[in-house]
Each structure stands twice: as structure tokens, then as C-alpha cells.
Amino acid sequence: MTRERLYLYDTTLRDGQQTQGVQFSTAEKVTIATALDTLGVDYIEGGWPGANPTDSAFFDAAPTTRAKMTAFGMTKRNGMSAQNDDVLAAVMNAGTDTVCLVGKTHDFHVSAALGITLEENTDNIAKSIAHLVAQGREALFDAEHFFDGYRANPDYALTAIKAAYDAGARWIVLCDTNGGTMPAEVGRITGEVIAAGIPGDRLGIHTHNDTENAVACSLAAIDAGARQIQGTLNGLGERCGNANLTTLIPILLLKEPYISRFDTGIPLDSLANLTQISRALDEILNRVPTKQAAFVGSSAFAHKAGLHASAILKDPSTYEHIDPALVGNTRIIPMSNQAGQSNLRRRLESAGLTIAKGDPALGQILDEVKAREAEGYSYDTAQASFELLARKALGQMPDLFEVKRYRVTVERRKNKYDQMVSLSEAVVVVKVDGEKRLSVSESMDTEGCDRGPVNALSKALVKDLGQYSALLEDMHLVDFKVRITQGGTEAVTRVIIDSEDGQGRRWSTVGVSANIVDASFEALLDAIRWKLIRDRKG
Predict the structure, then answer these.
(1) Could you tell me the domains of the chain?
(2) pLDDT tens digits for 16-50?
(3) Are the C-beta atoms of 76 and 127 separated by less than 8 Å?
(4) Which family does it belong to (predicted)?
(5) Closest Cα partner for 522 from 422, 375, 412?
(6) Which of 238, 244, 305, 386 has CB 3.0 to 4.6 Å from 379, enough for a Cys bridge?
(7) Cα Dmax for the chain
(8) 11 exposure class (CB count in 10 Å sphere: 0-12, 13-18, 19+)
(9) CA–CA gap between residue 327 and residue 520 (Å, rounded)
(10) Are 297 and 331 in contact (CB under 8 A)?
(11) Above pLDDT 70, what percent of the chain?
């Protein structure tokens, strides 16, 4: 059976930039566009040229891509021609072969927001699209608020999109702008649009995630006959976000009936880069990746229950709907007080520690995990700390260095501008390579701001670790989480540190103490030791 072509349209750089707290630089946009092109999407919407300096600069610096680079804008304003509308001209001047224009299709918005007649709005749509086509551009029309408009006045909503279609638009994109339409209704209305004369291979879908249904609504539209999906990486977008392409793409490539019915143009070897691309975007945004994200989250293939892990050992398909390697992810067997010996052996094997079934050390490690979790530790997420615990129990923990003592101080004082500032300073004494070494460090960054006592400790600790110092140069802390596990005067603090290195590895460690600095230092020590075990020679 010949598969139908399904087109993927990414709007991370435009609609994704409307996420609260997100603002891409031009260089970051170039990096993201290059990654999207490597993945294999068909269209990359670069932004709205003329709307802000960054978007305009991006189109000047945009990389050469196989994907169709697309400029976004709006239909011409009332009372002027398409040729003389300076806002539309700025979009055209971006020089892209493909242009997407948004226009009103809900009669309420035409009268209330634009303050013009329905006929004037339809005329603006038709003339704007015709202008693009006359200039040799591939034209897309984003039918804003289409589903709300169709419910209120189906005749006008259809009239508006037919105006764009008749004027030569390659794609008519039905937008659930408010994100409140349910999947069944999206499917029904999409089918009715096709029955009314807009062919499915000219129809796209653009959904928002305000009811957590953006992916389901997109699939419903495809099931009904639409052949273009618009979305964003990691589901970025205004309010609750857009349809998540990092979820949709693997569904389309790995799940029936889509794998048999459609060709997306994305090869399976590119799909294996999906997790890395997703996390690279979070790194650009300085955000912690969502652990529970489908397909690409660090917990997407984590198996905590002992019963599950036992079955995974026999056949991974018992509790995994796909092979995690297909999307560039990995299986994780977390350790917790719910763990059994099968779970434990699986986790040890993934860390390169082989132990025979029934070995007494298994019971000892489990008892140690459960006892420490009763004290406040959590190895559910701190996989690196668990590995170190297991190595000690198995007698496989190398003697790297020993911390003899440390001290950290925090001082508040006035600077030369008579402003109150803080300064953290740490002293660490370690025994390494057979000798004691003392290191002192402040926590000031390049701009003269105090980064806190844990930063000072980290800098002092790695400052002089003899043969190991060079191995730690590419290591940095990417997240720091603090939780109080008991209340009142007996409060215990748990600190989880996420670290990353230049090889793209990410690992988590845990420390527990009544003192937050001591808990942080314990987690920091584990992070460094795990890194050295992985990278040291011999």
C-alpha cells in the first residue's frame, strides 16, 4: 500500500517564543533551526519579520535548510491594498519562498476585534493570499479561532477559508486558537470542512494544549483527512503550549495506523536524535527537562516497581511500549524502598556492576537503601549516588581522595558603593596522591556577584585534586533541589544535585543532613566521585 505524505510544520521559533519567560536570541534561533532541519521537519516558521528586531535579524542570518523556511505575518489591513501595506511588506521582504498569514475566521472576532464587516474581512484574506501567490510565494493561511468560529457561524467560517483557498493558498490551517475544542469535535469539523470542498491534502491543523488535548486533537484531524500538522518542540507556546512535536513525531513514525498510512519524511535514524534535541532546547532555555515527558523524558522508561523490573529483565516489551533507543532515550531502573532483587540486579548491570543472582550482597545493598531512605535519602532519582553506595557494598569503590575537613563562611558587608552585598568563602582540605592539599575559593562570578556557599565549596574542592583536576574541567552543576523531609526542630534537609559534563552526560546525586550546606557538600562529593570513576584511566 502506498503511504500518503504527511507534512510537519514547526513553529517553535515563532509560536514557541510566546511561552512566558522565553525569548530567543538570533544565535539561539539559528541553532534551533539547524537542529530542526537535521531532524527532518518540512517547514520551519522563523518568526514575524518586522514585529521585533530579533525576528527580523534571524531572517538575515537564517541557515540554509532543506526544510522550507517560512515567514509569518497577518493579512493586509482594511482600507489599504496588499501592495501598500507596510506590515505585509516587511513579511515579504524576509525573502522566504514560503509565507504564512493569519486571518480571522470567527465572525465575533471580525466585528469585535477588527471592527469591520464580514465581507471586508473575506476580501482582505483573498487579496492578501493572491498577492503572495502573484509574487511566486507558497502561501499558507492560518485560520485563527476556526473551531470556535465554525461552531458559532459555520457558513462564514467556511466562506473565509474558501476565500484563501480560491486565492491560491497551498495550505489552509485550521487553528484551535483557544485550545478548548475536544478531539472528537476537531475530527468531525475537519471532516465537514473536507466535505465542503477543501481537499485534505491542502488542509493543516494547529492546536493549543489548554485542555491537555493538543496532541489528541492533531491526531483526530489527521484521522479525518488533514495532511499537515503544526506544533512546537517540547510543546512550547502561549498559555499551556502548542501540540508537542516531540510526542507527535514518534507516534507518527512508530505507532499504527500512522506508520503504515503515512510518510513524514523523517527517517528512523533522525528519530534517534529526538531526545538530544529536546534536551538541547531546554538547555538553551535554561530549564530543567520535564522528567515525565512522553518518549524523551528521563522517566519515560523508568521502572521503579520490583515486579516491573523483574519482567523487564525477561522481556523489555512487558512494560515498554517502544524500544527507548528508537528516540535516543535510555531505560532506567531506579532504586527505592520498593525495589526487589531483580530491580537491583538490573540497575547494577546498567552501571557495569555484575553480580550473581542470590549473592548475599544483594540483600545487604537493599537493606542499606531502605535504611538510608528511612533517614531521608532518595535514590529514586539520584542514580549516581545509588551506584556509589552499591560499589562500596561490593568492595568496588576506588580510593580517589579523602576530604579531611572543610569550612565555609558567608559574610554580609557594604561595598564601595555603600550597598549591602554577600560574599561566600570556602576552605577545603583533601588528601590525594598521598598528600594533604588545602584550597581556598570565593564564590564570585565574572560580574562580581556572590554565587553562594555551595558554589564556593565546589570551586575549592576541584581547585587542586592532583591528577583528577583536569577530568573535572568540563563538569558543571545544572540543577539544585532542596526539600525538608521532616518538620519542626528535627528538620532534615535533602539536597539533589544534577550535574552535566562536556560529553552530554547528566547524573543526579543526593545528600542528607540537618545542615543544608553539609547535605549539599555530600551530594557534591558524590557527583565528583561518579564523574571520576567514569573518566579516570585504569
Answers:
(1) 4-266 (3.20.20.70)
(2) 999 998 999 998 999 999 999 999 999 999 999 99
(3) yes
(4) Belongs to the alpha-IPM synthase/homocitrate synthase family.
(5) 375
(6) 386
(7) 86
(8) buried
(9) 33
(10) no
(11) 93
